[in-house]
Amino acid sequence: MSAPAIALEGLTKHYASGRTGLAGVDLTVDAGCFFGLLGPNGAGKTTLIGLLTSLVRLEQGTVRVFGHDLAREPVAARRLIGLVPQEVNFNSFEPVAEIVATQAAYYGLSPRRARQRTDAVLSLMGLADRARQTAWGLSGGLKRRLMIARALAHEPRLLVLDEPTAGVDVAARHDLWAVLQRLNAAGTTVLLTTHYLEEAEQLCDDLAFIDDGRLIARGGPGALLQGMDHDTLVLDLAVDCPEPLRLDGVTVRAVDARTLEVDVPRGRHLNTLFASLTEAGVQVTSLRNKSNRLEQLFLERLRGRQEAPA
Amino acid sequence: MTAALYWNAYRGMVVKQLRRVVRTWIQTLLPSVVNAALFLVVLGQLVGREIGTFGGVGYTEFLMPGLVMLAVVTNAYSNVTLAVFGAKLQRHIEEVLVAPMPPWLIVAGFVTGGVLRGLLVGLLVAALALPLTGLQFHHPAAIAGMAVLAALLFSFAGLINGIYARTFDHTSVVTTFVLTPLIYLGGLFYPVSRLDEPWQSLSLANPMYYLIEGFRHGLLGTSAVPWWATFAMLGVATAIVGTVALTLVARGTRVKP
Questions:
Q1: CATH architecture assigned to A229-307
Q2: Whole-complex ipTM
Q3: A109 vs B8: CB contact, 8 Å cut-off?
Q4: How far is B105 from chain A (nearest CA, A)?
Q5: Which fold has domain A6-225?
Q6: Which among B198, B188, B163, B199 has a CA at the least distance from the CA of B81?
């Protein structure tokens, strides 16, 4: 059995400001997995990525990358990782190809191999025609693509992306998703943090929620969604809703005369809901989830933590 | 395998440094050459006629070693300071921090950039001065050794400055208010032996005095300080400052939270 792509044990980080970045995180990510790390701002996602990629000083705990201990075998561990950070972090005055080739050199590629890989990843990311252009002139979306190209230059087995689609337009986001899915299908393990929960639901086959430096939920999207106690549906009506509307076993809220929100307990069939609505004389013209289901679960877990006694 | 990885990474860092120097040559190469030319023409050729000779050499010849050393030291220092500070400012220091490069390799990459720029500008100044001075290289090995050691020492020092610098002001403070005055007061323009006390004793406490005199010895064959004293001072200082620089990089000071 191959070593997990990531194995974190007791990972703890306290910043000089007194803030706790991580509080004893244990996490294992299997090789080949598309893993999503979700959490609100300041939850510890970037700290976790920083510790994994050596951008943050490791104080307590262990980090293993494909079995290599980051503290004891930093060279072996780091050469397996490609990082796409949250903020643009290349020298904007350098040409695009130079940025990628230099990074390839830092990972030990010979000049010839670095050139080959630079051409390959710039083509992959649709930047081949920008190779000689100074990075300064690239749009925000193209800068994101350049950072992904740079991270791929040395063919990492683990690709770490910290909110890679933040500020990227919808079409470009879908293009990026396709690239990431192809890389993952080819065997690259992907660790992704994102604020777009539909992105996580679409891409990831394993997820963890992090809040306040601790993992608060873990599992595949399907398994996690099984843990939801209800779905909130929004119903658009053909005619005004009769007042007051009471349905057996579900909670109904009127948003306006022709829109209802209905909390449907998990396991209840929608057929019975529609039978009850028909019986009450309500004609439904369309139906949708109030929010992304993963987002709903995420908010439930956060609220649950905030309401739990200390 | 690891040796090849390290060599390619090191080469990558050095090429990046040199490209920056060449790309911005008006800022990196030209100023020291223009300054040296002005000193040589105005002080050496015009004022020097009135001054006569120092220690048996003309004033232009007397000035030249100090001007070369001034170019080497300030360029090596500011190159590394600005490279590190710029990398922190634009966050591309992270490119080397995440890469499989040990701290000594990161230090070596930055410092080599400084040493090469210092030596290159030093050579340009020397090339400019040669037609004006008719200088002879009395001890070529000593000249090369001192220039390399001086560039190394001040590249290490520049690295420390770059690590601690938080603003652009911090990158020029040491060069403007410490290095240049120390070199000017270390016997660049006059023989320290001609100063009255306590200025002469104070000058002997200035490390730049030994640097300039040692270099002067290599070029002119005459000096108030034995060459070994310059090498000893440079060797000890380089070892100390280099160790400090390496320790700071290994700890991730000011770059890793």
A1: 2-Layer Sandwich (3.30)
A2: 0.89
A3: yes
A4: 10
A5: Rossmann fold (3.40.50)
A6: B163
